[in-house]
Write a structure and sequence with these properties.
about 90 residues, alpha+beta, two-stranded antiparallel sheet, 2 helices, about 15% helix
Length: about 90
């Protein structure tokens, strides 16, 4: 994963506005009532994938900028390093 994703809203958008209402930091609705990404590229966020999955027209695609592959699952969080305990 590149650490950056691209959001695309396809022409199949039914203009329901569900994504813009649920995630205004990523989506906006234009004067033509069509949903558009607010900006790109964006940092990975599982919430964005949930919003894309909730699109009734399946019109939202999230892609990895490095591979160009669709992102369907959020990358697993990397656990913080364990502190090593030095025993005297």
């Amino acid at each position: 994963m590149s650490g950056q994703w691209q959001i695309t809203v396809h022409k199949s958008c039914r203009r329901s506005g569900i994504c813009a209402a649920a995630a205004p930091r990523w989506f906006t609705v234009g004067d033509d009532h069509r949903t558009r990404p607010v900006a790109g590229p964006v940092d990975p966020d599982p919430e964005l994938l949930d919003v894309a999955d909730s699109c009734p027209a399946e019109a939202i695609t999230v892609t990895d900028l490095v591979t160009g592959a669709p992102v369907t699952e959020a990358p697993e969080a990397v656990p913080p390093p364990r502190e090593s305990k030095v025993r005297p």
